[in-house]
Amino acid sequence: MTDYVFNNDEQNTLIRDNERYEEVNDITGTYVFEYDAMEEKYYVCATYEKMFWLSDDMLTGPWTLIDSLKIFDQDKEDFEKFLEEVKKGTPKRTATFRIKTKVDKKSRWFSVTLQTLKGLNNSLVRVIGILQDVNTEMEARKELAYRRTYDALTRLLNADSFYAQMKAMIKANPMGRFVIVSIGIENFPIIIDRFGSEMGNEVLKYFAGCLRERLSMGNTACRYDTSTFMVSLSDFSDADVLILIRDLNALFESESISKCGAGLTYGIYRVEDMTMDVQRMCERAQLAREEVVSTRMTNYAFYNENMMLSIKYRAEMESEMNPALEKHEFLMYLQPKIDVETGKICSAEALVRWQHTPSVLRMPGEFLPLFEQNGFIKKLDEYMWESAAKYISQLEKEGMEIPISVNISRFHVDNNDLIKTITGFVSKYQIDSRLLQLEITETLFAKDEQKLYYLMGELKRKGFVLEMDDFGSGYSSLNMLRAAPVDVIKIDKYFIDDIMLTSKGSIVIENTIRMLKELGMVVVAEGVERKEQLDFLKSVGCDIVQGYYFSRPVPADEFKEMLRKDRMEEGL
Fold it and tell me: CATH number for the domain including 335?
């Protein structure tokens, strides 16, 4: 044996090298020990004791230190097999286990390597152990695996995992009764635009919680896309599905959620062909939900084969709508508004028709719901605004000044380009802004009142006359009437229809009209179809009426002749 004598410089260098070695171990999360069987001694790196428990009784034999590690309960069986293989002669083994540490008293992932060196007669000479901290890597892998299965935000299954699970459920129970329900968060893009993505995320997480609370074992849910969820139900009757919808609606109607205007729509597909691809099943549930969005009759719909024809029809319209706009196939029709006192035409409402072919005239109910859904309504509105402004200019040149009202959709309020666009048409055709009257649907007031009121105030300052359309159809409130900067109130047709039905209906309408007039507003009643309605409205002070009793909506040229005749009679 050679004795080494170090001078002070050499000793200092050796100390620094050891310190560097320990520092590298600490940084890399590596913990090394070695058992020398000849000397019956352990050599343990200094960093080991920082991470793991260490005492003299753990250092008495070749396996005592490794046996003292506090292995996570679920990993103990695998660790014992691993250790047994090494003891039986496998020279080197590496495996990953969770081990409890001194640092945070929690289990962390470590890669454990054990290597044995044997001498003559297969006698043990040395045992080397290396524990490498791989917790960050393993947690990342775990998170990655989780994300392959689950949606990170809602913690529900993702679409691919939902397909796989649904397929497995059908395979396990081919005679079962399965239902797939597509559930959409209504107005989600608007929520993001007005309240921000954080609020949007809260809405999604809240609804995911509603699903977890309501769904029982054997049923599952996923986040299907940005604002759509898919639910699979086993052994549910149609009545059971409707009860689920009722319960989800009730859970979802919290104060914070309702304030942002979120709602739910449902599409229901009852699985009949078990061999059908699960993705196609989901598409049919989606199709049923889209039917809800387009018709707005209720917030749920069951799939039927007619919907497939409907979607093809809508796809055809979507492919034709932009070319139709370029070819001016959208026509402006006008419905006269009549002054109750004089019986003369005092204004008109611009309404759209689609001349699809020379012999086919499409009515608004056939295409407007789709355009409102896909956003094309914004282009169509602007087209109608310009058509009305141009028409007003033409009438003025012929000595017939008359206001024409046009509709404003939520897309213009949301996109902040309303004022610039509509004042541009007024300037282009050199008309008085008070002649291009703007109808704002009552339901818009339920969305973002402050923003809407600001835009309305700006429009009034520029001379536009503002009308609240469909008053009485749902959102009306006394506070809204007090605060909304409108000049004209249009009472909804369904409100007017109540006049002849009950005495209470008459009382409500009579007092409503009188209150509106006391507030300084002009009152228009639309949907007047019978003389009895006209007589009643005249008796309670209604200013203007509109409806089939006087005229259906007519083409622009026909309205011009109607107006010219009306003015000539007025001059007599």
Answer: 3.20.20.450
Answer with the one of 303, 328, 358 that is the final residue of a domain: 303
Tokens standing for residue 196:
């921000």
Distance CA 246, CA 301 (A): 14
User: Are 449 and 499 within one domain?
Assistant: yes
DSSP state of 97: E
Rounded CA gap, 472 and 541, in Å? 18
Q: Is the Cβ–Cβ distance between 21 and 44 less than 8 Å?
A: no
> What digits encode the pLDDT tens for the residues 117-175?
988 788 899 999 999 998 888 887 877 777 788 888 999 999 999 999 999 999 988 88
CA 319 to CA 323: how far, in whole Å?
Answer: 8
Q: The pTM is what?
A: 0.56
Q: Which pLDDT tens digit goes with each residue over 85-128?
A: 998 888 889 999 999 998 877 889 999 999 999 887 888 999 99
Q: In this structure, which amino acid lies at residue 285?
A: A
Task: Write out the residue range of the structural domain in which residue 279 sits.
Answer: 150-303
Provide the token pair at 344. Answer: 């003369």
Select from 269, 243, 110, 102 the least CA-distant residue to 178. 269
Residue 349 host element (H or E) = strand 345-357
Specify whether 363 is located in the same domain as 294: no
